[in-house]
Write a structure and sequence with these properties.
The complex is a heterodimer of chains A (about 325) and B (about 280). Helices cover about 65% and strands about 0% of the residues of chain A. Chain A is mostly helical and about 325 residues long. Chain A has a single domain, classed as MetI-like fold, CATH 1.10.3720. Chain B is mainly α and about 280 residues long. In chain B, helix 6 packs antiparallel against helix 9. Chain B is built from 14 helices and no strands. Classes of the chains: A mainly alpha (about 325), B mainly alpha (about 280). The interface between A and B is large, with 121 and 114 residues. Chain A: Pfam families: BPD_transp_1. Chain A: It is found in: Cell membrane. Chain A: Keywords: Cell membrane, Membrane, Transmembrane, Transmembrane helix, Transport. Chain A: One of its GO terms (biological process) is transmembrane transport.
Chain lengths: ~325, ~280
């Protein structure tokens, strides 16, 4: 293998970002006095804090507070946790949770698994980079445009049914977007087309970071094919897998554009996820407080899932 | 790499299977793109109601024109170009300043400020929408360009801040210390030392946030209504809702138009783009 190493050029290993608390170059000592003392950073951070504080952080707390009110956009009255207890009895919310769960599981099964397989299959293969590029391209397209394209594929006289009829599988052809659970499943497939590329890129980064020596040592021990993949490659990909899985879960929870274009959550609200239910309750039915309660539930789930991968890359807040 | 003489230890059947898998995936991914291109070329009048699998005439430019002019994609295209460019730039500058404050300058509780700013990208947009709508209605910002630009800039700051801050922590503090010994002001240190040294990170952050703003649908449909203000994805949604009347070729041409800028940015700046992705995966 040594012959190939020299021809491969420098092996790119990702530089690790030091996770120490950032070392303030300018300490609040004597030298800093003339620059404005220990608060010199405040004016520099103010524009960011102002924008984010007024337009994101404040609305967040306002939403959390608003979820305690019965609010139709004109009048509102305090009802405590009534909105939350209503969630438990609402069959639409139940269906929405089920659909959201399908999205999470489907996203883990399809784009993540496909991403891993494609990354491994194209790793160090001639023209593999081009194959990866083709699969990554949809990632640069918006969810809206992807949905418009897949509407063309999935609509009742669309391309998918045309193909199925063309190859004699008429019994499989169906109005994909008009029946549950087919609509949720086919939208997950459509989002697979778009989302897999990101996972391929991330897994490819992880694969390139595997030390050449590890692979060579395993080859000397006679590991090939499946055993190499299972006992060498996969364990080495653990770190990147955590990130991919975490991001995939969060993205599937946030999925909105695709569903809004393809089914608007319908028919009769059967394909709504939490992101859609919140939007419809708030802006179509004007149940603002109820919608805020759903938004808060969704946020808690999203942040909890983000924590999976975030704690790895955050500034040490409590580790040292 | 594959031609290396060491390869035969693996079975050639496995190789064939792997190549078949790759080719299959690539074809599967290309079929929708092919259908998009072919059907966006079909003249709307000769569209049969079912997707065409081979070119039926060449009316691509007519369809693009109809989508651009009559369906109003053109106006919102220019709107979105304004939003994405201005808000992307503003967010990168604001985020770089905040990163400078948190990493380099003396500031009490830097990690608290980090979390306050970064939290903006953690939550789903839904949690911001209802209060934003109310605030915008009260402040007469609903359905205005300024209103959308403010919210896009604010929304783009957190992730840009995250990327830039991570890169800034890898810069040796001695650089700043040396500049300070030479008597440089903070402003000078920021613009003359940090910004040039971080230019590729700043570029990656801009490209990411340009794409994010360009691709946004949810803020667009929530905080604006009139065609003169709406961003491009909202306009495409409106066009798509008229599926039967305007006909798939025009709609697909519209999808093509709105995808071109981000596709171009991605293809031209692929390195920077992948850098941004890689930075999230560390």
């Amino acid at each position: 293998m040594s012959g190939t190493v020299s021809s491969a050029g420098p092996v790119r290993t990702p530089r690790r970002i030091p996770t120490r608390t950032p070392h303030q170059a300018v300490r609040a000592g004597n030298s800093a006095k003339k620059y404005g003392g220990s608060l010199a950073g405040i004016p520099w951070a103010t524009p960011a804090l102002g924008l984010v504080g007024v337009l994101l952080v404040y609305p967040f707390f306002r939403s959390a507070y608003g979820s305690l009110f019965q609010d139709n956009g004109f009048t509102s009255s305090y009802t405590g946790f009534d909105n939350y207890s209503r969630l438990a009895d609402d069959p639409i919310f139940g269906r929405s949770v089920l659909n959201t769960l399908m999205w999470v599981i489907g996203t883990l099964l399809l784009p993540v698994l496909a991403g891993l397989l494609i990354a491994v299959a194209t790793h160090r293969v001639r023209l593999g980079g081009w194959a990866q590029l083709v699969i990554v391209l949809p990632y640069a397209i918006s969810g809206t445009a992807t949905a418009v394209l897949w509407n063309f594929m999935l609509t009742s006289d669309g391309a998918v049914n045309q193909v199925l009829r063309g190859v004699g599988l008429d019994s499989l052809a169906r109005p994909w977007l008009l029946e549950w659970p087919e609509n949720t499943i086919s939208m997950i497939v459509a989002s697979t087309w778009q989302a897999t590329g990101l996972n391929v890129v991330l897994f490819a980064i992880g694969l390139r970071a595997i030390p050449r020596e590890t692979v060579e040592a395993a080859e000397l021990d006679g590991a090939t094919g499946w055993r190499m993949f299972r006992y060498v490659t996969l364990p080495q990909l653990r770190a990147v897998t955590v990130v991919v899985v975490g991001m995939a879960i969060v993205n599937s929870l946030k999925a909105f554009d695709m569903i809004w274009i393809l089914t608007k959550g319908g028919p009769s609200r059967s394909s709504e996820t939490l992101a859609l239910t919140m939007y419809r309750e708030t802006f179509r039915l004007f149940h603002v407080g109820y919608g805020s309660a759903i938004a808060l539930v969704l946020s808690v789930i999203v942040v909890a899932s983000s924590w999976l991968y975030l704690r790895r890359q955050m500034p040490s807040s409590g580790r040292d | 790499m594959r031609q290396a003489p060491k390869a035969p230890s693996r079975s050639s059947a496995g190789h064939a299977l792997r190549n078949l898998f790759i080719v299959g995936c690539v074809l599967l991914w290309l079929v929708p793109v092919y259908l998009l291109l072919v059907n966006a070329m079909t003249p709307p009048t000769s569209y049969t109601g079912e997707p065409d699998w081979s070119p039926q005439g060449f009316a691509l430019f007519d369809n693009l024109e109809v989508a651009w002019d009559q369906a109003g994609i053109g106006d919102s295209f220019l709107n979105s170009m304004l939003y994405a460019t201005v808000c992307g730039l503003a967010a990168v500058v604001v985020a770089a300043m905040a990163a400078f404050a948190v990493v380099v300058l003396p500031i009490p509780k830097p990690s608290l400020w980090f979390w306050v700013i970064y939290s903006g990208t953690l939550f789903p947009l839904q949690i911001f929408l209802a209060p934003l709508f109310g605030m915008y209605a009260d402040a007469n910002l609903y359905d205005t360009r300024l209103g959308l630009m403010l919210v896009y800039a604010a929304w783009a700051v957190p992730f840009a801040f995250f990327l830039i801050r991570n890169q800034m922590t890898t810069m040796p503090p001695e650089v700043t210390e040396a500049a300070m010994l030479d008597g440089a002001s903070f402003r000078r240190i920021f613009w003359r030392i940090h910004v040039p040294l971080m230019s590729s990170s700043l570029g990656a952050a801009f490209i990411f946030q340009f794409t994010a703003v360009w691709n946004d649908l949810l803020f667009g449909i929530t905080l604006s209504r009139s065609p003169e203000v709406q961003p491009v994805m909202a306009a495409l949604t409106t066009l798509n809702n008229a599926y039967s009347s305007s006909g798939p070729p025009v709609i697909l041409a519209g999808a093509l138009i709105v995808s071109l800028p981000t596709l171009l940015v991605f293809l031209v700046f692929r390195g920077l783009f992948l850098r941004g992705i890689a930075a999230t995966a560390r």
